[in-house]
Every structure is written in structure tokens, then in C-alpha cells.
Known about the structure:
Strand order of the largest sheet of chain A: 1-2
Radius of gyration of chain B: 22 Å
Strand content of chain A: 5-15%
Largest sheet of chain B: 8 strands, mixed
Oligomer: heterodimer
Amino acid sequence: MQIQSLSRRSFLRVAATTAAITTATVTTGCSFLSGDKKSKFTTEFGTLLVMNASQANTLYAFAEAILPAGNGFPDIQKARVIQRADEEISFTEQKIINDVREMLDVMEYLPVFYGQFSRFSKMQKAERLAFLNGLNDTSSETVRAVVSNCRMITYNIYYGHESTWSAIGYDGPFAKVPQQLSEQRQYYAKVVEG
Amino acid sequence: MLDGIFEYSDIKKDMELKTQVCVIGSGCGGATVAKKLTDAGIDVVILERGGYYPAGKMDQNELNMAGKISDNRNLKTNHDGGNIAVGGANIGGASVHYWADSYRTPQWKLDEWEIDYGVTGHKMADLTQAWDEIEANLHVHLAQDPYFNAMNKKIKNSSDKLGWHGHRIPQARQHCQKSGHCMQGCLYNAKQSQMVTHIPTAIKQGAKVFADAQANKFIFEGDKAVALLVDVIDRRTNRPSGIKMKVIADQFVVAAGGFNSPFFLMQQGLQERLPALGKNLSMNPSSMVHGVYDEEIVLWRNIPAAYGVDQFLQRSYENNHYKEGGYIMMANQVQPALFAAMVPGYGDMHNDLMRNMPNIGGTISWMDDIPDELGEFEMADDGSKVINYGYGPKTQAVLKDSIAKQVTLQFAAGAKKVIIAGHQGITLESMNEMNKLDDLVIEAGGLFLASPHPGGGCRMGSDPATSVVDSQHKVHGLANVYVSDSSVFPTSSALDPSLTIMGFSHIAAKSIIEARK
């Protein structure tokens, strides 16, 4: 696989195009509170507020490629990776939300830039992992940024879930007090459950 | 209202406040300046954009607490996505999640700021009395033996073995329970954050504190700010609720932190008259090295950093060429979510390391930024903040050396394998493989970095062409707006900046009090 040097500008052009296409074809969005400009997206992971169905699928495909499966580790659904990522990102500043959406759109079409005939989420799991490993030495700053941020979000959310802790020998919070859901977590749950 | 702090749910309609001094920000800078002003009997309002999360609202859960007390849940990065811009966004600011390291500014750094940047009135003699008072209030003391976890013991022993100088790190804590959750906020009120020290004192002395209050725009009459427009943030959505506040004050102090104060002033349209505004951004970029040990390390318990290796604190040169140094090294501490993000690789490689987490140790180095390779803030077309921080050749050389020294330190500590925290995932199995570091490329997004110590966007100095505030902390060209946080530092503070910020805030308070006479 030949690694090309890719400019940010060319990525953004693709991202804008793919985002427009995917948003038009798969999103069912609606404003759920007057004065609040957030939309809801119906996906196979439930209702999400940041990621549309295509973006959620891309993140799932990324997570499936890099996360452990079995041997005491929970799967992506049990660790609620997509849902919790969506929840956390929905409360960040709008620029981060926009960047995450763009990042996932670019990730989805990245293999095409590298001469693959398939979008990222359509590749086999092993092919996705091989593709990501092949990017470790990329000279493209944009590619590194996209992949780094996808991995950061994925690993952060997955290993932040308590179902992963016994497999990694982590004994959990020191105080063993019940979780205290913030106003935001409570609000998100109320909104997506509708 | 809890504990004297107003939250969004207490503000049900637009309101107007009148006070003598309005302080924007409640971290080490804002809380300290407010405390000193109330000491002098001055009426103060503190505005904090973030929420109020006292011990009763903490649960030590890494993701839950990042959502409560960390700016943008630690997802904000610099322009290339490789450097996490770590900041606070809550009452008490970053001091609620910091490690409580409490260093006085080194003499050589104060000399640098005076001689090279024209800072006056901030000499050691000016700051010592402030630090004596602050250290007493915050119970600062050297880390004692019970607070050395396995990694800290290894750091101390291995640096002794190597003949490298080190020291016990001064800590702002009292009756610490060794939970290892400094970054999740202290459930025991043992860590002496601003939330449990200067803020309660300021409130007791009459200060009014508003959480969920985002400073928006100054109203100026000539060169004087006469009022500040504020958006109340609905904590549930983390977005403006639509309710507004207007604060009328004689003087204003911008203390929103190194990542926010410069950008706030940029939003007031001051960049044209202050060309240095938003520039000269230092970040103490921190490189990390992970080590795999035969025995259990349990990096996530006890205090983060009890021992600091300062042998290479200052850069040294040979024949005018950089030789080594320019950073402090200490043990790292991360809980599993952040740890996983900082470990390179995917699939089995990453999984094997995560399974072995109890046996993985880590070190971190905080770099003293290179003065002529600093970053800057930029306002994007949509009005959002971009943090531009690249890695010039001198910065690359220092980061590379800091990694080499961390590798050396960990092998001396008995590591069986060390892994550089970065995209390349370079792994060494002995000192004989040090040549692998020749392949280390320091590039945008290459290393996994975190930067919790921003400074410089409102640099202090005498010339408005090259600085933003004067040595009285007053913004050049404005009659009554001051800055009191790390953004006034001319360059990086080299060490954890909290005590420097607080010491400087004592001086800022004196300036404000003097100006009122």
C-alpha cells in the first residue's frame, strides 16, 4: 500500500462533500427543544445527538478494529462506546463537535484516498486493522490527526467503562461510592430516551 | 445557592450587579486575587464559566469527573490534534484536578523575566512574603515517605543510582487519603484546591461567587471598562440559557486561565492595539514514557508525583549547541481511560499492555518551552479558538532528550521494556537499543502529549508593542482591566505554575488596591 502525502485542504474538500452526501441520505434530524439547535439522529445504536448513522457506523468500525474481543473484555455495545462517546462530545464546544463529525467522515473515506476500493466501515475487520497499522508512519499531519483523535476517543470511552476494569486489573474508584450523574448526563438520558 | 455560591438554577431572570471589583475566573489566579482583595475589605464578584462540583458531587469515576471538572472533557487539543489542552472548567479551576505540586518560581526564571522581558516588581523579594502566606494557607509541605507509591520510589532510587539530582516535591494537601484521584477532584477535601481554600475565605469576607457565568463582552467608555455582559450557562446543556447578567464594576480582573484569558481579550477586539495578544503561548509540553515491570506498580494509587528529578531542569549547551536538559521529570499518574489513550498501538499490541496495566509504570517530563518557538491563539472564521503550537527544531531536540532521559531512568529503575507514548510506538528492551530513538520523529500529532500549563498569551512587559499587560498587571491602554493568571508569564514557568500564579496574583491585588486610592 503506497502512502501518499495528503494535504489538509484536500481532506476537507472530501469531508465536506461526504458529509453533505451522508447527511442528506441517512439523517433524520429534528430540533427537539425550541431555542436548542441540536438534532437527534436515529441509528442502530439508538438515538444520538452528535453522530449521524454513517458517522456512528464509522466509529463502530474503528472501535471494532482496534478493541479487544472476548477473553474477559466486553464488546463495544456492552461498554456503550458509541453512545457514551456521543454523549460526552455533545457537551463540548461546537468546534469540537464539528471537528469530530468531520473527522469521522474523513475516516470513512480514508481508504479510498489510499487506493482501496472500499470505505472504512465496509472493509473486513482485519483489513481495517491492517490499514490503521499501515498509517503509523504516515507523513500526513492530517491523517495523523484524524486517526489519533479517533483512537483517543475510542480507547478513552471504552476503558472508562467499568465492564473493562476486571480484565485490566483495575480495582475501580478508591472510594467505592455510587456514581453521581451530572446534570448533563441526566439531561442527555432524558433527551435520547425521549 | 450552596456554600455561598450561586448556580444557574438560582438565576431565574436577567439581573444587574454592582460591585467594586469583578473577577473573571475562579482558579489559582482569580480565587487568589479575590481573596486578597476581600482581605482589604473590597467588594468582589467572581464569575466562573464552569459548574460547581464540591466533594459531595464527586464519585472518582474518571469519565464522570472529566465531564464535570475538565474543560471540554479533555478533548480539546492544539491545532494538530496531538496535544491535549488540559484545563479546568469549574469553581476552583484547574486546581480542582491538578496534582498539587507547589513550586516557587526558580530564581533563574524570575531573572530571565526581569532582564529579558522587562518585568519589574516580581523579584524573589517581592514574592517571598506572598508565598509564605500561600504555603501556610494551603498547608504546603514536602512529600513524605508514606506518599511515595511504587513508581515514585523507583524514580527516586534510580535517579540516585544514576547520580541525578532530585527532590521531594512540595505538595498542597492535608490528611491526603492516597486515593490516586487527584485528577478526578479530591473527594476528601484533602487536596488544597482553590475551592476549599481561597474561595471559601473570600466568600466569608463578602465575595459573591457565580458558577455557570460566562463573561461575554465588556462595555467600554473610552479606555475604561464600565460593565461586563455575562451569559448564564444552563449546566444541563452546557450552553447559554438565554438569561443575562450585567456586572458594573470599578475594576475588572481577567483570570480565566492561560487557555482562555488571551482569547477572551481577543474577543473584545483588542488585538489591533495589542499585537502581542494571543501570541507567545507556552504550554510545558509533556512527553511520556511507559515502562513494563516484573512487579506490580499500580500507577493509579497514592499521590501522583512525590519526587522530581531536576538534574536537567535547565538547558545546557556545548560550543553554542544544545547538549541536553530543559525539563523536569517525575512519575506519571493516569487512570485507565486516559492511560489507554496514551498507550500506542492497536489490537493485540495495545490489548496486551492494557491487560498488564498493574505492572506498567510511567514517567512524564514537563518541558520549559523554547522562548523563540512559542505558539499562539487564533480566532477561526466561526469565532472559535484555535491553539497553534508546533514543534520547532529546538523544541524537538529538547523533547527527544527528555524522552531519552526518561528511558534511561526507567531502565535504571528495572523496567523490562519501555514504550514511547506516540504514534510510532517505539519500544526498547534495553539500553543497548537506545539507537532506536534516532528513528523517533517529533512531528505534529506524532507524540501523545498533554499540556496543562499554558502561559504567555497576555505577556507582561513595558512595551505595548511586545506585551499585553504592564508590571502592575494592567492591560496596556486600558484604565481598569487587569490580568491575573499564567497568561501574563513572559515565557514558560518551567515548573508547575500554580504557586507562581498565586504569588503573582498577590502582586496584582496590591496593584488594584493601590489604584483605588
